[in-house]
Amino acid sequence: MTQMRILPWQDIDEDWMSSALSQAFDSPVQVHNLSAEVIGTGKMGDNVRFRIDYAGDADTLPPTLVGKFPAEDPKAREMAGLQGAYYHEVMFYRHVAPRTSARVPRIYLNEIADTRTEFVTLMEDLAPAEPGSQFVPETQERARMALREAARFTATFYGSQEFAGADYIMSQAAIDGGAMGQALLQQYWPSFADRFGANFSSEMRAVGDFFAGHYQRYIASVPRAMSLVHGDLRSENLLFTDQYCVLVDWQTIAETSPLTDIAYFLGGSVTVEDRRAWERDLVAEFCEELARAGVRIEQEEAWRQYRLQSLHGLLIIILGASFSSSDARSDEMFRLLIERQLQQAVDLDAIALVTA
User: Fold this and answer.
1) Under a CB-based contact definition with an 8 Å cutoff, are residues 211 and 308 in contact?
2) Taking 70 as the threshold, does the pLDDT of residue 1 lie above it?
3) Could you count the other beta carbons within 10 Å of the beta carbon of residue 354?
4) What is the model's pTM?
C-alpha cells in the first residue's frame, strides 16, 4: 500500500481524497466534489468534517468523514509532537483499538510523518453523536455511559503484558518513575497557580503544592495491578447519543490504575456537588461492569484507587494550560477543571494515600 502524502486539511482536494478512499476500500473511488469545515474545540489538534460527493455509485461510501490534523496553534503543535501525542493516537488506532470492544471510530486512513509532528487520520463521522462540553456538567446517566465504555476498555487489558514496552503507551512508573513529570510540575506549577488560583482554598493550594513537589511519590503509590486507560477521559473527549457514547482523542493512552479514567471523569466533568453525591455508587457500578468483563476488584480496593487517582488529572491540566496558547475559552476551561480536580482530591484526602 502506497503511503499517502500528509497534507494540511486546507490542501486536501478531490484527487487526494479519491486516492485515500480507494486504498481504504481496496477498489477505485472517485470523489467528484469535496468541502470541509472545522468542528470541535480541541487544543492539541484540529478536527475537520469533510462532505463528499462521488462520481458513480456511492451506496456503500461514506457521505461525510472526520479528519484529525495537527493543531494550527504552533505552540500546541510543537509540544504535542515532542510529547508524542500525535504518534500515540495513530498507534492506538493501528494496534490497540482492534483489540477492544469499547466503542471507537472506524478508521479509513491513519498516517504519521517520521518527525511525529505531522499526521492525518480519517475516521467515520459519528454524527448525530455530539461531544460533551466542560461547561455543561454531565448528567448521572451520561456519566454511566462514559464509565461503561471506560470499563469495557480497561477490562480488555487488565494485568496484560501485551503492550509492555510499547513506545506509544505512557507509563511513567516504568520509564523514569515520574522524574520528568516532577521536574515539569516544579517548573510550571507556580506560574499556573498564579494564573488560575484566584479561587483556590488553602486546602486546594496545599494539594497542588504537594503534588508538584512529590509527583514521584504519587507515581510510586499507584498499584502495580495495572491496565490501559484513556488517560484524558472528560466530556469533550466523548461523543454522546441518547443511548451510548464513543471514546475519542486517544493521545494520552497510559498504563496505570484501572480506576484512573473514572476518577478523572467524575472529577472534571460533573459538578462538585453531583460528584460527591454519586461517586460511591458509580465506583460500585464500575466494579460491576469490570466483573461482567471478567475482572474482579474488591470495592474497597477500587475506592482506595479511585481516591488516589483523583490526583491523576492535575498533571494533564497544569501542563495542558502551560503548553498551549492562551485564549478566553481555554483559560476558563482550565480554571474550571483545576478547581474541580483539586476539590476532589481534598474531599477524598488523596494526599494521605501518597504519604501513608
Assistant:
1) no
2) no
3) 18
4) 0.94
